[in-house]
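hiii so my PI (J.) wants the whole complex modelled not just the main chain, which honestly fair. so below is everything: two entries, each one labled with what it is. i double checked the lines twice but i was tired so who knows lol
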Amino acid sequence: MTIAPAPSTVRSLRRRILERGRDQAVPDRAVLVLHDVTKRYPNGKIALRDIDLVIPEGDFVFLVGPSGAGKSTLIKLLIRDEIATRGEVVLDGQDLARLPRRQVPKIRRKIGIIFQDFKLLPTKTVWENVAFALEVTGYPRRLIRPAVDQVLAIVGLSAQAKQTPNQLSGGEQQRTAIARALVHDPRLIIADEPTGNLDPLISWEILQLLLRINELGVTVLMATHNAEVVTALRKRVVALEEGRIIRDEVGGAYHRED
Amino acid sequence: MITFLFFSVRRAWQGFWRNALMSIAATATMVLMLLLLAGFFIIQTGLLAGLEFTEQKVEVVAYLEPTATEAQVTALQDSLKAMAEVETVTYISRDVALERFRESMKAQGREDLTQYLDSNPLYASLEVKLIDPSAVRQIGEALRADPVVRNVINIEDLVQRVLTVTNILRTAGTVLLLVVGAIALFIIVNTIRLAVVARAEEIEIMRLVGASDAFIRWPFVFEGAFVGLLGAVVTLAVLAAAADPLSDFMVEFFRVLPLKVGSLTRDLVTLVMGTGVGLGILGSWLSVRTYLIR
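here's the output for the full assembly
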């Protein structure tokens, strides 16, 4: 089921953002809209300040910045592991702060998330790890097999389906994680340092895979420290520092270019 | 709903076997705790039966005036029977009393001196058995007030002391059982918690891929129930196996006491099953809950 973004929210956001003089157009279908978001933790630390960010459908965005800049907090807000202290986080038309607790699992199924440490279950095979995401969300059993086979083909792991994670290379493990993220047919893929544990060659492989998935129409948000990759690909780059967006440019490099 | 149930049970079964070491450790702890609990329960039941047996021995004996007419005695008997605290009233005539005395002398191997007497020196009496031994004073006073009663053996103080002791033992037994129950509760819940914590990553992944709370919780709850059930069955098997060698001792013990072995077995099965399954479910529920509240 696809829920269209509540038009009023997006329209008012667009007006507000335009009034602020931003030269960023808000497309009709934004997967993700953050407006005026501040996150203050109970210990008083302010992790994010006044964040405005719009990610249109089909975009590929790098999220960069030093450790402690707020990247992890931002990702936690997107998967509603944390709730913004102020402002709106609108994912696929739904304001996460106002989302009832019972609806949280449903919104998470629209997001595929990939981590640096893969987070695979060591006792399950590649196939079972991917199928797991469908089983535990009550997906009809007869539809699980074709869905899993399909995503394993996309990430190129059909031959390794029966192996367990410890029999795989790091790159293959990450591809398993990507297959699991894809199996729900998500609107948005969030990759948190997906190449952090991988050597450069394998990192490029993973990047190629994410780019291909993006070409299939899935929006990708990737937090990374990998300057080489970011600079080479010339995608949209959002740079965070001390909880603020200090740069948001299309076709940017990892570091500011003047 | 059926699909969900099927899913949960299947996942619980998988979870149990895929983490066999943890599951077996949890089950073993469950068995040990249930054995401890069952042991104390048996002791407590025996103790209660013993105390009840002792208390039932309490009997008020009233000797009657030789001048008492049959009508007066019957009237007294009837008034006693009408009292709620009285279980039975037995009239012991002078002849019966003499007969008993002779038998007891004979049993002790002593010479029967009564044969040298011209007449029966004993008094007729009423033996009053009480439902509630604490009523002994009240019954004693009622008897003394009656003109046909010559005297009442004063056992009030003795009964009072026995009751003090039995009440202390009863309370101590109950407290001990509760303490053992609490220990079993904490250890079992904690062991189940360890088994759940060992799978924190699995729970985290489930949350991240968008599993609803019910889909995360119920497999663990079923698994906890399964551990509890298995533990209870093993415990009962151990108890059944131990019952045979113990029976020589136990049969003697229980023959004396007004204890129904059938009801003890039933209570024990209920206790072990209920505690095992109940704590298995409770442990899982509480442990998973900490991961869901966020």
